[in-house]
Amino acid sequence: VQLQASGGGVVQAGGSLRLSCTVSRSIFRLMSMGWSRQAPGKEREWVAGITSEGSTNYVDSVKGRFTISRDNAKNTVYLQMNSLQPEDTAVYYCNALLAGSWYWGQGTQVTVSS
Length: 114
Fold this sequence. Notes:
This protein is mainly beta. It has strands at 3-6, 9-12, 17-23, 32-38, 45-50, 56-58, 66-71, 76-81, 90-98, 101-104, 108-113. The model has no long low-confidence stretch (mean pLDDT 96).
């Protein structure tokens, strides 16, 4: 299973970005998907998740600002990030859970300037 993330970049505080992660397998629809992030000098932090049925969860710090969604027809999960703040600066990773195994994509850098 390969995961390809994209959509990172540099944005000013208060701005928005949308991350995408495409999965190489058509069984994407069976996978729970998520996004994590790792800021410089910090441990990786889980940010948001979406089950195969579409139920979502978020870490408290992004609730109301970030939205995770999925398009099973495109084997893609999205992370819409609004009202970005400098503390959201990190490398963002998508991940997938299938049959008890985790799969990770390469990271995409998000930098929020103040």
